[in-house]
Write a structure and sequence with these properties.
Layout: H1 11-27, H2 51-57, E1 93-106, E2 124-138, E3 145-158, E4 186-197, E5 202-204, E6 215-217, E7 220-228, H3 250-253, E8 268-276, E9 280-287, E10 289-290, E11 298-299, E12 306-314, E13 324-338, H4 340-348, E14 361-377, E15 382-391, E16 405-415, E17 420-433, H5 436-443, E18 461-473, E19 476-486, E20 497-507
Helix pairs in contact: 4-5
């Protein structure tokens, strides 16, 4: 059985993460308030007012009426807007947009050597931008049998530090892993979303660009077919999934060991089926795999290559009157993938001049793994989350990043105590690992689609990330973020590295 080295986080790294969070809180402790839509205060219920009550509401008190009680409750405050242009309630259409700009910089760090795919040790800064137009149309207002048509356009430009190479947990989730795809807008999503109710009992949900109905059956089937990105529906976590308002690192926002089917930009085509009940959900999907590792072209022959994903979600809290959720994920990818051990053996036997994983690919190769995802609200302001992921690690990392095992934990805190309810600060720790065959491949000079220092003195890649997000006005948010990476690219001979970020985000 393969064993992973124990998790090691330096004391300085942890103290640095906490210090950044506390410093950001003190800087932003004044001014008008803000939070994510998941934590907005409830909107006041509509009041039907008549007669004298109506006059009182308008300040026209009839003669002889008794004075209002001194201890009468104040009306609930109006929920702050989190978009520049509010979306009309219960509309049959959706039009919105977002823009996310991230500036990142790195200071020099210790490095004994560098390879073709190394995270460079010189000072560097880069900027990325992603803009998305979300549109959707609801066929009718039926609650039990609802259909949504979804179409999104997107544009991405800018590059990541070191061309997004050299880190398993890269520092910017918005960066396209191939910087030469161009700036032209592309179709990000097109979907048909069908709801089939199994009961007349209903529950409310927040309407959004993936589901326009604000009321749905408590028990229902949902189907989606078209182009999508899997993290929209699998491995979702309200504390650690949103690179626009939360963490930025690939392996903080997603399960790094989940090599989910996707092209270079993170999208694929396929179908998803989901059953939802009052407190739990079950979903399954099958999707197209890329033709080559990290490729932009998809293999449309599902009989030859596909990515299958399943997830069970339980909505249960361990603390009364608080929210809590747990998700268990599995995936199985079949594709034209190589085997690390075969590449190493061919090199040691003198067949290959360097270890080359692409020279040992097989159609129908199977890569599989599991994931665990949990979140728990502790107080009105404080929530925690955690993830664990594992995959078999013998076949090459193909779609997402080069991680065979990951564990992460973190917490976020909202700014109600300093009268900024939409501000938040957070910290997370992540530890990534690869298995022995993968280690040997990199140690002997092999290149993955992300990693390759030319040598390897193996150690777990440990990351501490902290941020503060400030709500400036309506849909405008700004963030400060810092990341400490110990053993970048699993290499003890390099690092630690520090990366600082400034993010501007707007929701239209």
């Amino acid at each position: 059985m393969l064993r992973f080295p124990p998790l090691r986080f330096t004391r300085n790294a942890l103290l640095a993460g906490f210090a950044l969070g506390l410093a950001a809180a003190s800087v932003c402790a004044q001014g008008p308030g803000s939070t994510s839509a998941d934590h907005l205060p409830s909107a006041p219920e509509p009041q039907f007012i008549a007669g004298a009550d109506f006059l009182q509401q308008k300040g026209l008190k009839p003669a002889g009426d008794p004075p209002a009680p001194a201890n009468a409750p104040e009306p609930a405050p109006e929920a702050p807007s989190v978009t520049v242009f509010p979306h009309p309630e219960d509309a049959r259409y959706w039009i919105s947009g977002q823009a996310n700009i991230i500036f990142q910089g790195r200071i020099p760090f210790h490095s004994l050597y560098e390879g073709p795919n190394s995270f460079r040790n010189s000072a560097e800064y880069k900027t990325s931008m992603v803009g998305t137009l979300y549109t959707a149309l609801r066929r009718n207002r039926s609650v039990r049998y609802n259909t949504d048509f979804i179409f999104d356009l997107e544009a991405a430009e800018g590059r990541g530090l070191s061309e997004a190479l050299g880190l398993a947990g890269f520092t910017n989730l918005d960066v396209v892993r191939n910087p030469y795809l161009g700036k032209a807008p592309y179709i990000a999503r097109y979907q048909i979303h069908q709801v089939i109710g199994l009961t007349d009992k209903t529950t409310s949900q927040e309407a959004n660009f993936f589901a326009l109905a604000s009321t749905v059956p408590t028990r229902r089937l949902e189907f989606r077919i078209g182009k999508m990105t899997l993290p929209d529906f699998f491995d979702v976590n309200s504390v650690g999934s949103d690179s626009h308002l939360q963490f930025m690192n690939w392996t903080t926002d997603n399960n790094g060991a989940w090599d989910y089917a996707a092209d270079t930009r993170g999208y694929t085509v396929g179908g998803l089926a989901e059953y939802d009940d009052l407190n739990w959900s079950l979903r399954y999907g099958i999707f197209a795999m890329p033709v080559v590792a990290n490729g932009i072209d998809l293999d449309w022959a599902f009989s030859r290559a596909n990515g299958q994903n399943g997830e069970y979600e339980l909505r249960h809290s361990w603390i009364p009157q608080r929210k809590g959720e747990t998700r268990v994920l599995y995936y199985a990818n079949r594709g034209h993938m190589g085997v690390y051990r075969e590449a190493v053996q061919a090199y040691l036997a003198g067949i290959d001049s360097t270890p080359t994983i692409t020279a040992h690919e097989h159609f129908g190769a199977l890569k599989y793994g599991v994931g665990y995802n949990t979140e728990q609200e502790l107080t009105a302001n404080l929530s925690v989350f955690g993830r664990f992921g594992w995959n078999e690690g013998q076949h090459e990392s193909f779609c997402y990043t080069e991680v065979d095992q990951t564990v992460s934990a973190g917490a976020e805190y909202f700014g109600n105590r300093w009268h900024r309810p939409l501000d938040k600060m957070a910290i997370a720790v992540v530890s990534n690992a690869i298995k022995r065959d993968h280690q040997n491949y990199l140690r002997l000079g092999g290149l993955g689609f992300l990693l390759g220092d030319g040598n390897l003195n193996y150690g777990r890649e440990n990351i501490v990330e902290s941020y503060y997000t400030w709500h400036a006005w309506k849909g405008m948010f700004y963030s400060l973020d810092v990341q400490h990476i110990d053993n970048p690219g699993y290499n003890r001979d390099r690092g630690p590295a520090w990366v600082g970020s400034v993010r501007a985000h707007v929701d239209f």
